[in-house]
Amino acid sequence: MWRLMQDRDQTIKNTMRQVKDLSKDLANALSVVASVESRAAVAEAKLSGLQRKMGSVDDKVFEKVGVSGFLSSSSDVVAGELQAAKEEIEKLKEEADGNKAHMLQWLLQSRMWS
Predict the structure, then answer these.
(1) What is the DSSP letter of 114?
(2) Alpha carbon of 34 to those of 22, 28, 39, 98, 109: distances in Å?
(3) DSSP readout, 92-104?
(4) pLDDT in tens, 45-90
(5) Contact, 43 vs 85, CB < 8 A?
(6) Are 75 and 2 in contact (CB under 8 A)?
(7) Cα–Cα distance measured from residue 2 to residue 36, given in angstroms and rounded to the nearest whole number
């Protein structure tokens, strides 16, 4: 009987430690997801601004150059910034999706323990 009580106490301690560790993991994952979502929002705002800027540059270039089709170097710079912003947004979305998947996995594991 005494041995069974010791085993039960040890099992409870181990389970509580696992719950505490999982809670820390979830808190970290939530923090990472919030950070990634914030960075993604900033990147999307930057992309929107660059798209507007690119549109105005293209309009100005078209007015100055006419139908010849030559683009200015400033338009090329904006296009490069636009592409970099799009790539950053995709990277951040993938990172956010990975972190959300990790949280869902944690939630499924925590339900198994309950």
Answers:
(1) -
(2) 18, 10, 9, 13, 21
(3) HHHHHHHHHHHHH
(4) 877 777 777 666 555 555 554 444 445 556 667 677 777 877 887 8
(5) yes
(6) no
(7) 51
Q: Tell me which amino acid residue 15 is.
A: T
The model carries a pTM of 0.48
Distance CA 61, CA 54 (A): 10
DSSP letter string over 54-99?
A: HHHHHHHHHHHHGGG-PPPHHHHHHHHHHHHHHHHHHHHHHHHHHH
DSSP string over 30-45: HHHHHHHHHHHHHHHH
Contact 55, 80 (CB under 8 A): no
Comparing C-alpha atoms, which of 31, 25, 42 is closest to residue 92? Answer: 42
Instruction: Give every CB contact of residue 26 below 8 A, 6+ residues apart in sequence.
Output: 103, 106, 107, 110
Q: What is the pLDDT of residues 85-98, one digit of tens each?
A: 778 878 877 877 77
Amino acid 44 reads E
